[in-house]
Design a protein that fits this description.
Oligomer: single chain
Helix content: over 70%
Strand content: under 5%
Structural class: mainly alpha
Shape: elongated
Number of domains: 1
Number of helices: 5
């Protein structure tokens, strides 16, 4: 089971790094020449989120709903939690800017502006998957040490 956790941690970290690079390039107006292929990052979120939801539910079973994230992330260092909260906050602000200040009429082509709109969410969700899955490895290691 731990091998699967580490596999999905690796995929989540890779997705986070790639989405961050794509986002920065989009902010700078750099065309990566990937076109529609960049949306593979969108599909990758679903790949990591199925195990993330299962793991988070397992970590937080028997807890109050209000404590769900606190319990699910209990194995993470503070900086990882802050990073994820920061990415989610940024995703919200980025989306508002995208919706209200997008001035171009989109003709189906993948512009840096569209990529920026999506990549903000990619960073948030890959980051959340990373910290939940990492937390699970730390909680499981701590439980093994107690035995």
């Amino acid at each position: 089971m731990a091998a699967f956790l580490y596999l999905f941690i690796f995929i989540s970290a890779g997705g986070l790094i790639l989405s961050l690079v794509v986002h920065i390039c989009a902010l700078l107006g750099i065309d990566l020449g990937l076109g529609q292929k960049v949306f593979g990052l969108h599909i990758g979120i679903f790949l990591v989120w199925i195990p993330t939801v299962l793991v988070a539910n397992n970590l937080s079973k028997d807890c109050r709903r209000s404590d769900y994230w606190k319990v699910a992330l209990r194995g993470c260092p503070g900086w990882m939690k802050k990073m994820t909260y920061g990415f989610f906050g940024y995703a919200i602000v980025n989306f508002i800017f995208f919706m209200f200040f997008s001035t171009k009429v989109h003709t189906g082509s993948v512009t840096p502006e569209i990529i920026r709109g999506f990549s903000g969410h990619w960073m948030a969700f890959y980051s959340a998957a990373l910290v939940v899955l990492y937390s699970a490895t730390q909680v499981k290691n701590a439980e093994r040490l107690k035995e």
